[in-house]
Write a structure and sequence with these properties.
alpha/beta, LMW_PTPase, Protein-tyrosine phosphatase, protein tyrosine phosphatase activity, Rossmann fold, 9 helices
Length: 236
């Protein structure tokens, strides 16, 4: 049964909402970004991540990591918000062929790592069950925890380990650290919603997301990103 976070009549068989999490395929790793409408923040994060993985990793390794997004009140089939697409274009990242999705149980079940825009999104994902608690973080929370992890303790890609093995080790290490180093304030672990705001707010949001993703992608792949001046967006 496909279920969503939209309010509605109770299903006839509630038990199907919490089906057991199936065994995960060791050869693949899926990242899911979650925001509200799935037209601004999570599409930006999804496309920036996909671009970085394809840039930093060989084709075979990059292909083992899939990246998706959805919204807790997702606009099913909707295009990316125009300003969000502009921000991606300024980063030299493809913004085309995007369709919004409403967050469903199957998206959470299939994800190895769920990164949300806010603490409320994180709580909503975890409330869906599917043993999601240990693999669901806000994006900025995950970045904060990743910065505490010694890269030398992670499996080295290319030295007998696959990138998927390193990614899973990173998620386990971050989950183990949660609670040991709390955030300065709840707001510091969130990315504000720019929906309906001018392009400047979207650019600020894009910079926040890019800056949060960079250390995560470096830790996940073992490959550092471009220098700051090389990755700065180009604006006309």
């Amino acid at each position: 049964m496909r279920t969503s976070l939209h309010p509605g009549p109770a299903p006839a068989h509630p038990a199907v909402l919490y089906r057991p999490v199936p065994p995960r395929h060791a050869d693949n790793f899926k990242i899911l970004f979650v925001c509200t409408g799935n037209v601004c923040r999570s599409p930006i994060a999804e496309r920036l991540t996909r671009h970085a993985l394809d840039t930093r990793l060989p084709v075979r390794a990059a292909g083992r990591i899939s990246v998706e997004s959805a919204g807790t009140w997702g606009h099913e089939g909707a295009p990316m918000e125009a300003h969000a697409a502009t921000v991606l274009d300024e980063y030299g990242v493809d913004s085309g062929n995007f369709a919004g999705r409403e967050l469903l149980d199957e998206h959470v079940v299939d994800a190895d790592l769920v990164l949300t825009a806010t603490l409320d999104h994180r709580a909503q994902v975890i409330s869906m069950g599917h043993a999601a608690g240990l693999r669901t973080f806000t994006l900025k929370e995950f970045t904060r925890l990743v910065r505490l992890i010694d890269p030398a303790t992670l499996p080295a890609v290319g030295q007998g380990a696959e990138v998927t093995e390193r990614a899973r080790a990173l998620v386990r290490a971050a989950a183990a650290l949660r609670g040991w180093r709390p955030s300065v304030s709840p707001d510091s672990d969130e990315v504000d919603d720019p929906y309906g705001a001018p392009i400047g707010m979207f650019r600020h949001c894009g910079e926040e997301i890019f800056d949060a993703l960079d250390p995560v992608l470096t830790a996940l792949t073992g490959v550092p990103g471009p220098r700051p001046q090389d990755s700065a967006p180009t604006r006309s």
